[in-house]
Amino acid sequence: MMLDIKTIVAYFMENKPINRERGFMRAASAKTGRVVMITSIVLFIGFWAVARGLLKQSELSESLRVILALLPIGPFAWMLWNFIKGAASLDELQRKIQLEALAIAYPVMMVFIMTIGLLDIAVGLSYENFGLKHLWYYMPMFYFLGLFIATRRYQ
C-alpha cells in the first residue's frame, strides 16, 4: 500500500483507518487513538505554555520556578508514550518511512547544533535568539522534512 499525503490526511482528519480491510474495530481503535493522541498533545502544550508564562515572572521563589520548569514533563512523557504506541501499530512500510524520517532528522539536528555552537564561538550569537530554549523548536521541523523526503521515496 502506497502512503501518500491524502492517506495521511484521511487517517488523521477524517477518522478513516489507513488499512480499511481490517473493518469496524480498526476504525474505532484508530478514532480512540487519535482522541488520546490529540488530548496528550493539547495537555503538553497547555502545561508548557502555563509554565513558560509563569516562569517569566521574576518574583517567584526558586523552588517554585523548578517545579514549574518540571511541570510539562508528565504530559510530555504521556504524549511520547502515545506516539510510541501509535508507531507500533503501523504497517511495515509506514514504519520504514518513520525510521527514515528519524534517520534524516537526527543527523540534520546534530549538524545544526554543531553549526550554531561554532557560530556562537566565532561571532557570539545572541542567547535570546539561539539559546537552548529555542533549539527544540527545530527538531519537529527536521523530522517533518525527513518525513517528506521518505514519503516521496515510496510514492
The number of E-state strands comes to: 0
The radius of gyration computed from the alpha-carbon positions, rounded to a whole number of angstroms, is 19 Å
Structural class estimated from helices and strands: mainly alpha
Q: How many distinct folded domains? A: 2
- Main sheet properties: none
Number of discrete helical segments: 8
Q: What's the end-to-end separation, in Å?
A: 10 Å
Helix content: over 70%
Q: What letter string, H or E per element, gives the SSE order?
A: HHHHHHHH
| Global morphology | flat
Overview of the molecule:
This protein is mainly alpha-helical. The chain has two domains: 1-89; 90-155. It is 79% helix and 0% strand. It is built from eight helices and no strands. It has helices at residues 5-13, 24-55, 62-70, 73-88, 92-123, 127-130, 132-135, 138-153.
Give the arrangement of secondary structure elements:
Blueprint: H1 5-13, H2 24-55, H3 62-70, H4 73-88, H5 92-123, H6 127-130, H7 132-135, H8 138-153
Helix pairs in contact: 2-3, 2-4, 5-8
